[in-house]
Write a structure and sequence with these properties.
Structural class: alpha+beta
Radius of gyration: 17 Å
Number of helices: 4
Order of helices and strands: HHEEEEEEHEEEEEEH
Largest sheet: 12 strands, antiparallel
Oligomer: single chain
Distance between the termini: 36 Å
């Protein structure tokens, strides 16, 4: 079933790439788009470094908050909130693994004010058929890794990202249709509350 979902996602992505050639979207326009993305919800397909595939639902509430709910049989949960990222593994009886959000490339699009025009932040800006690709890094800490963002135009829409972390591991996330401007409770992104629900005080 996961493979079918993944193939469907890839087929959709291929279809999105088929329209006539479009102009490369300028960085200032992409920055404005990301800054206007206050809340969003979408299904996602994740392709891991080892080729395994996961699916689930993502919730974004900028600045600084995101929640990945993974479908069965994974049932994992990843929350970013309060400047931290927590990974909850339902198969484990230990508290979630945590690390600073600022040490992850995903933080670059979750910041309060995204500025892709910042010096040494964007290391690649290109066009591939109807897609605009942007590779970005923390200009002060390039050792944290980078994120490659994939956008389509008319209207501008974020479709995919590829994160390369500080160990060189790549993770691809393909987004479904984004539902924007929806109400999301802050508790959805509370690591403390989720830990308490799971019996970790």
């Amino acid at each position: 079933m996961k493979m079918i979902k993944a193939l469907a996602a890839i087929a959709l992505w291929t279809a999105l790439a088929m329209p006539a050639l479009a102009q490369k979207i300028p960085l200032n326009e992409l920055s404005s788009y990301l800054n206007g993305l206050e809340t969003a919800k979408s299904t996602f397909t994740q392709v891991n470094e080892d080729g395994t595939i996961s699916t689930g639902t993502i919730y974004i509430r900028r600045p600084g908050r995101v929640r990945f709910e993974y479908d069965p049989p994974d049932n994992n949960l990843v929350i970013a909130g309060g400047g931290q990222v927590a990974v909850f593994d339902p198969k484990s009886n230990v508290p979630p693994e945590q690390y600073p959000l600022k040490r992850t490339p995903l933080n670059l699009i979750l910041e309060r004010n995204v500025n892709l025009g910042r010096a040494k932040m964007v290391t690649g800006h290109s066009q591939d058929d109807a897609k605009t690709l942007v590779r970005a890094q923390d200009p002060e800490h390039p050792e944290y890794g980078n994120i490659q963002l994939v956008f389509t135009a008319n209207p501008t829409e974020l479709r995919q990202w590829i994160i390369t972390d500080d160990s060189g591991t790549q993770t691809t996330v393909i987004l479904g249709e984004l539902e924007k401007g929806i109400n999301m409770q802050p508790s959805l992104f509370s690591i403390t509350r989720e830990a308490q629900k799971r019996g970790f005080n």
